[in-house]
Design goal:
By secondary structure, the protein is an alpha+beta fold. The chain is built from 3 helices and 7 strands; from the N terminus they run βαββββααββ. The strands form 2 sheets. A 5-stranded mixed β-sheet has the order 1-2-3-5-4.
Length: 124
């Protein structure tokens, strides 16, 4: 038995696989959403809100999924730590739009420079 714990399941695994229903397993305290789709390869995504989603080809055996997640665990933990650190440094709603604030655009940090002028507002 793999070291995973199911956090939620919408029916049997065959039903979940055929319908593309997402289920959640927990590995070392990290909840990982499993979504079965018509794809060719396993894909793992860590979102900025610290959700982890594994997109899995239909008919993939559970052992292969567990091995994939376990192999990618250091990568998952690294990205979760990165997103948690960003959230700690700048909580949502703390934006004041003043000179010097850092904003992330596609994961790249940019320093805000405010210039007041007449006319329509714009971002460069």
């Amino acid at each position: 038995m793999p070291p995973f714990r199911r956090a939620g399941n919408a029916g049997s695994s065959n039903t979940a696989a055929s319908l593309g229903v997402t289920q959640t397993v927990t590995y070392k305290g990290i909840p990982v959403g499993l979504e079965y789709r018509a794809v060719k390869t396993l894909r793992l995504t860590v979102y900025p809100d610290c959700r982890v989603l594994a997109v899995i080809p239909r008919h993939t055996p559970p052992e292969a999924v567990y091995a994939f997640i376990e192999a990618k665990l250091p990568w998952i933990e690294k990205h979760l730590a990165l997103y948690r650190e960003r959230a700690r440094k700048k909580p949502l709603g703390a934006n004041r739009f003043v000179d010097g604030e850092i904003y992330y655009v596609w994961g790249v940090p940019f320093r805000l420079e405010v210039r007041e002028r007449r006319g329509h507002p714009r971002i460069e």
